[in-house]
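User: Before I run my own analysis I want an independent prediction to cross-check against. Here's the chain; please return only the structure tokens and, at the end, one sentence I can use as a sanity check.
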Amino acid sequence: MREYKAEIIGVGTELLLGNTVNTDAQDVSLLLSKLGINVYFHTVVGDNPTRLKEAVEIAKIRADIIITTGGLGPTYDDLTKQTLAEAFGKKLIFHEDIAHKIRDFFANRIPAIEMTENNLQQAQLPEGCIIFENELGTAPGCAFEAEGKHVIMLPGPPRECRSMLKICAEPYLKALSQAEIHSHNIHIFGLGESAVEEKLIDLMETLNNPSLAPYAKDGEVMLRLTAKASSRQDAQDLMLPVLQKIQNVLGNIVYGVDTDSLENTVFHLLKERGLTLAVAESCTGGLLSKRLTDVPGISRVFMGSVVAYSAHAKTALLDVPQDLISDNNAVSREVALAMAQGVRHKFNADIGIGITGIAGPETDSSGQSPGTIFIALCSNDHTYCRSPHLFHDRERIRIGGASHALDMIRRLLTDLPVE
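Assistant: Structure tokens:
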């Protein structure tokens, strides 16, 4: 089974300037990964034939497959075909059938725009290439083999690139690769990236295929377990024993495999148990509610929320006693529990969440520092409160507070320790 190495070259000065996000590279990488072709390098180069040729010469040394995106249009700076043809010693050949399609495109699809003659340079393609028709635009792509390398040229506009990838490039690439790459994403909440790696380092160092890599995300960690094999089932057979080892080592801090998010996990647990949820937020300012309502179908289980930022709002909207706030401070275990109980009763929900804390950047009047937070959960039978130590960064405090609340719900519904 041959191991192909690929390099993607994005062509366009607008990519270097940051005016355009290079989504083409992501789309191409995802396809290559699915086909079992290893992407080793992403390169971006401006609309300059000298620098593009230099990038291609480097790619020829280190890659078996070179895929370019962009620079196939009709204007003076669209020089990808010319530069690639020169780099591989190929002539450009004019294709009258392609020219006819370009004329037809203007006449029938955009008749209000007069076609200029420079559009016909798009009908010039490297000799001996396989032509990729553009279903959505005028610039065709192409593929050819030369000097032991496979070269594929795709248009830059994302819709056109994506369409040509699926219709033309994927069948071409499938014929090259006999392998598939499949992955499992293992989602973790409760340990940082370095702590997770420390627990798994011995296993990670012994793995080759499958491989295991950690990724830090907002407030949590993801592990990607990846295997390369001749079929999906063979890849799954390689990954299954490793996945079981990871779950045995990490235990209940693994909240899901191939799930979208903590909030998605919570949604499915609530739905399976026929339970409802209401939320009262202070320092998180509605972020927990936002994350929940991002999940399609959440209305089945989410009754509503209250953002009670001030002490007066906590009293007026959630029936938190004023003397409780006076005696304990608005940021306290007692007030968080009262908020959870209050919102649960207001919305007649099975589970209530109350969050109060200091997002900063300043300490509060009682001297409590940013990162101080209390997250309470109230259900028919239990009340819990968690007070994690969060980083002194306003955004991370809000994200962490919402994530801890979701983790508490997840643990309650799976009979795990909540606090």
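Sanity check: The chain has a mean pLDDT of 93.
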